[in-house]
Amino acid sequence: MPRELTALAVGVGVGLLLGLILGRWLVVPKPAPLAEPEAAAAEIPESATTDPVGLVFDGRIVELSPLALRRIQDLLRAKQKAEAIQVFSEATGLEPDKAGAVIDFLPKVAC
Question: What is the C-alpha to C-alpha distance for residues 93 and 102, in angstroms, rounded to an integer?
Fold first, then answer.
């Protein structure tokens, strides 16, 4: 009888130890809360941006700075499509209706 109790105690101890180790290892961290669009865009200094992103629209290449793209993506995540269209229109010089067509397609390829 003492042998069975010893084996049982060892088995329970090993099981608890493995459960603790695997539980710590397999825990998925919670995602960070979404930042306000203005705050997220303000975090990236203009000097930290790289080459502009080229988008082809109606046979012409429209260049968009990475900072403007990030701002537009943040606005789209915040469900502020009208503001995203305005930022895109101002950054590229496209009319708002054409900018809206690009913004409708943008989340599928860039966000």
Answer: 13
Which residues is 54 bridged to in the sheet?
Answer: 63
For 51-100, what is each residue's pLDDT tens digit? Answer: 777 777 777 777 888 888 888 888 988 889 899 889 988 888 888 888 88
- What distance in Å separates the CA atoms of residue 53 and residue 61, rounded to the nearest whole number? 10
pTM greater than 0.70 (yes/no): no
Q: For residue 81, how many other CB atoms are within 10 A of its CB?
A: 15
- Is the separation of the CB atoms in 72 and 88 below 8 Å? yes
DSSP E strands, 33-84: 53-57, 60-64
Structure tokens given for 62: 């429209």
Token pair, residue 36, equals 């306000």
Instruction: Compute CA distances 71 → 25, 48, 102, whole Å.
Output: 35, 14, 15
